[in-house]
Input
Amino acid sequence: MDERLTCPYCQEGELVAKFGIKIAELEHSKLYLFKEQSHKGRVIVACKEHVREIAELSDEDRNDFMADVVKVSRAVSRAFHPDKMNYGMYSDTLHHLHVHLVPKYKDGYEWGGVFAMNPQETFLSEEEYAGVIDAIKTELGI
Output
């Protein structure tokens, strides 16, 4: 079976809505706000191309994808001023290249430890989600 048929990042809609809100399509990636916001500004940058591993990309495509990751990281940092940005690339169960950008704050959740994939503790109102998304879009210039 073609795994793109069950891939949230390829299919979008209900599959991705379980955990994310689409912010924008960048040149080489799709950007999603992670609904669980224990780390304010946490986002996912998913490769537009359905690949399992970063090593499957050509050098040029890898560099382009990582340029999007850096662009988003800078935007989130400018918007929310975290003390550190954590980057997670796993895909053990969801076989589509994506990077979790997890802003960490010294006086905040999980400072000094590994971030929980989905702690299920902090969800926002629609208005609050919109505010976070607007701040990121402003810093991205979109």
